[in-house]
Structure formats: C-alpha cells, structure tokens
Design goal:
This protein has 353 residues and is α/β, with parallel strands linked by helices. The protein folds into 2 domains: 142 residues, Periplasmic binding protein-like II (D-Maltodextrin-Binding Protein, domain 2), CATH 3.40.190; 151 residues, Periplasmic binding protein-like II (D-Maltodextrin-Binding Protein, domain 2, 3-Layer(aba) Sandwich). It is built from 11 helices and 11 strands. Strands 1, 2, 3, 4, 5, 6, 7, 8, 9, 10 and 11 form an 11-stranded mixed sheet that branches. α10 packs across α11. The longest helix has 31 residues. It is globular.
C-alpha cells in the first residue's frame, strides 16, 4: 500500500517542478528579450570565421572570374624584383581573364627597383599598389602617416632565399653561420667548408636593391657589413651569368630565380651542419639534362620551416578609399584565389594557404 500511494505523490511533484521550470523559462524569455532560436543556433555557428576584411573571402574564390569589386582602368604597380616570376605568370593570366583590370609595371627613375623603392613610390602616388618581399618597416609606416597615408600589407605567398655556386664546384652545402662568414670575409677559401682549395668569390646585388638583400642582412649577416672581396652586380640575371663563369663564386637570390637555373647549382643550407636542407626536391638535376628537366622547388620544406631562410611576399595598399585601394584589394583577391595560388606555385613560390 505504501508504494502504491507514493506513485501519485511522485507524479504530482514532477508536474509541479516542470511547471515551475517552464514558467521560469517563459518569464526569462519574455522579460529579457532572449530569442530561443538564437540561443540554440549560437552553438552551431560559434566556430564560423568572421569575414572582417575584403580579402578574407579569397579562399572561397575558385578563379579570377569570381573575384568581386574589380575596378576598371589602368593601374600602375611595381616594387620587389623577386616578384618578377609572378608578374610574368600570374599577372598575365589575371589580365587575360579580366581585361577591364589593366596593369602596368613601372620602373623607378634614378633608383634601383626593389621593395623599399616600390613602397616609396606608393607613398609618392606613383603606384596604385606595391609588391614587397619583406614586411613594411615601422619607419615606413611613420613616413606614410606623416604624409597622411595609411598603409596596409597583406601576405600572399611564401618565398625562400636560395644560395647557388658554380656547377663545377664540389660542395654539398653550408650552414647559415658559414654563409654569413663568407660574406663578411671571415671565410675566404672553399677548403674551409669542406670544398676544394679554391678562393671564394661572393657576389651580391647592391645593398639598396630591396627586400632580398634586407632579408639576407637581417637573417644571415645579423648586422655585420659585407667584406671587401664581395663583388656587386646590378641584377640577378647579371649575377647568375657571372656565377656561371666564376669557379669559386657564390650568390643568393629568391628561390624561383635560382632553383631551376641551368647554369648554376643551388646548394643545401642548414641551421647546423646536421640539418642541411636543399631548396629543390629530390636529387640535383645536372646541367647536361637541363632545360629538358629542371630542379623543382622544395615546397614541403619551405612551407614546413625545415628550410632555414624563408619569408612572406606582401601586397602593400594605400587605404585611402579611392580607386587605388580598390585596385590593390582586387589584385590581392586575385592572387589569393585558388587559381592565383596555383599559378604562384607554378611560378616557383609556395602558396600561403
């Protein structure tokens, strides 16, 4: 009898409790303005990214035809010489797909082309946007601010700095420290780094040339100056030609400008002698098999950070709410689209996505 009498009591208690909970929930939603649908939808959407910038949608854009807000007209641009393969392969495809968006590369007057020159030209209103192979410096941000200009940089690709020697020189690789010591003049003979008894002839472009030299000075030279034996050549084309004729020569440049060359030999670089990593994939292709076969960029090691000298490439934009800003943002969206990133890889760079 006791158990039978307990059942109605339990049912009654349950109904009272449910009524109190339901009434309290009704009061909360009515008095606080809480939307029940919103409450339960927030959990399912809380991990969705917020598209806060114009180029944040680029990852969903498949090809150039899908890029939105593309202005019509002729837009000047320029800057880093490391971007030359991109201007050749990617920019040509952009203009073929979107003829309303015309691009004209502008060489500087009285200055060597490079990242720093391009950013200066952008601040002087000589370019609609600039291409840089290193981040905008704090000094450049301040100079732009003094001119009433706000700069924005957007990373679009990963690049590596490759080191090359004469193809006849028998040397397997160098550490970052050895590379710096060669260019300061501390190491002067290849026998000091496991090579033949041959004087080392370092070659570089001018210190004022741009982002590649600045990256080398920062990451490799670490504030030290170039030695007196370093020879300066104005362009990478000239430097590669000189290196091919100099048995003890060595030169550094953006990886796409070095890795697939037939007349020079890219070598492995490492943080230590036990961590030497080649900038190319697999075995080195000898000059006798080039150009039928060419060395391919070691994308996995560069993207993964195993290769020790890497950097981002940036589009630098003036945020002035004018057509120049729209052009720079559209160009960025082109390069960050799936088609753009694929073409970047074909040009010898590593996609950033």
């Amino acid at each position: 009898m006791t158990q039978k009498n307990d059942v109605p009591v339990l049912v009654f208690s349950f109904l009272v409790t449910a009524g109190l909970v339901g009434g309290g929930f009704w009061w909360l939603t009515q008095k606080s303005g809480l939307n029940v649908g919103t409450l339960f939808s927030q959990g399912s959407s809380s991990t969705s990214p917020t598209n806060s910038s114009n180029n944040s949608n680029s990852s969903s854009v498949q090809d150039f035809a899908q890029v939105q807000n593309v202005p019509s007209g002729l837009f000047t641009y320029g800057g880093s010489t490391s971007w030359a393969p991109i201007r050749r392969d990617v920019d040509a495809a952009i203009q073929a797909a979107r003829p309303e968006f015309r691009l004209r590369y502008v060489n500087p007057t009285g200055e060597a082309p490079g990242s720093a020159t391009g950013i200066r030209m952008l601040m002087r209103d000589e370019l609609a946007f600039a291409q840089s192979s290193r981040p905008v410096t704090e000094q450049e941000y301040q100079q732009a601010q003094q001119r009433g200009i706000k700069l924005k940089q957007i990373p679009v690709a990963i690049d590596a700095l490759a080191v090359a020697v004469n193809p006849s020189l028998n040397v397997s690789g160098l550490t970052v420290q050895q590379l710096g010591d060669i260019y300061t003049g501390k190491l002067t003979n290849w026998s000091q780094v496991g090579g033949p008894n041959v004087p080392i002839q370092p070659i570089t472009r001018p210190v004022s040339a741009g982002g590649t030299i600045e990256l080398f000075a920062e990451q490799i030279m670490k504030g030290r100056g170039f030695g007196s034996k370093v020879q300066t050549v104005s362009t990478t084309t000239g430097a590669v030609r000189k290196l091919a004729q100099t048995f003890g020569g060595i030169y550094f440049a953006s990886a796409p400008e070095i890795v697939d060359q037939c007349t020079v030999k890219p070598i492995a670089i490492g943080r230590t002698s036990n961590e030497l990593v080649s900038p190319y994939q697999g075995s080195l292709i000898p000059p006798s098999q080039c150009p039928a076969k060419r060395n391919q960029l070691n994308e996995a090691a560069i993207r993964g950070g195993q290769y020790p000298i890497t950097r981002n490439l940036f589009v630098v934009i003036k945020q002035n709410n004018q057509k120049e800003q729209q052009a720079g943002e559209a160009y960025t969206d082109f390069v960050l689209s799936n088609q753009g990133q694929t073409l970047l890889e074909k040009a010898g760079f590593v996609s950033i996505r």
